[in-house]
Design a protein that fits this description.
Order of helices and strands: HHHHHHHHHHHHHHH
Number of strands: 0
Largest sheet: none
Distance between the termini: 26 Å
Amino acid sequence: AATRAVIQILRLAILTRFLEKSDFGLVAIVVLVVGFAHILTDLGVSASLFSTQHVSQKVYSSLYWVSLLLSVGFYLVLLAVTPFVAGFYHLPELTQLIPVMAVELILGSMGRQFRVFREKALEFKALAIIDITSLLCSLIVAYVLAVRGAGIYSLIISALFTSLTAGIMLIITGYRKHPLVMYINLREGRSFYKIGFYQTGSQILDYIASQIDILLIGKLVSVSDLGVYNLVKQLVLKTALMINPVITGVAVPVLAKFQDDLKTLKEKYLQTHHAVSFVNFGVYGLLALVGPEILYFVYGPAYATSAGTLQLLCVWGAFTSIGSTVMTLVIIQGRTDLGLIKTTFRVLVNPIFVIVGASYGILGIVVSQAIFSI
């Protein structure tokens, strides 16, 4: 996860030298729209495959082809709604960008199921190699296109290239163990769709909660301000990805062993929480302290003046990261109903913070997000 985060930041660091701030704002909206459709193309089937140890060839083949057909169908739906999205944001450029980026719906579905089979077999090293290889190839593509003046398309095409190369490698390496047959039977896969239906509902709510700021900022402020906000937010998020998986990746299986021993579970959980808090506050405090230098080095001199945005988002990142340990406890204890309440609260309340903050410009929105995270 840390390596992937570094490569992704490196790609953005290179492209900020060639693209305008507004380009990153446009891509933030495009990714928001396509990401939502991405959840619907899977219908939670990928997660439901973890619920059983053995799946017959006919059943997983049927699930695969239905998912692929859904991705094509939702691609066509996106083509139909794109003019309305462009009209909502008053950005006619989106009518050209969304159809191109939406191809990722189809590319992503190609290897998704083979990835799940790898994860079930605990073949994380092989998956890491695939992900890092595809990201490095994408990095090269992004640089070449940017140098040749492709502009915003260097961002979009390089993202598509990531999905394409990862999908091809997943199919090539996974097809031998899990060959597909041309077979579709919705009735046989009914149990998976039932599990996936609830998972999809949860994912949609989680996605809206995590992207509500981008959704509203794109409407309330300029696309250039959105571009700066999203770039800085990505830097903060990638920082968390370099830290938290190292701790929580070990903590989750350890805590799960004590789910029936409440006293020990409390003790171990608080130890994990303290570790995550100590590391996150330290790292984000340092990042806030050297904010101008970090932005100058990573994104270039044009972004050094956004140090205030970075410092406030570091507050948001720190409290969001330490709050994520609570969800670990929720999952272990099987209290996903509490997780749903938390997510619902974020969806309903955070827009109020964003709208009030927008009265004071982009900095007001950042302040509102910091306060909301606390």
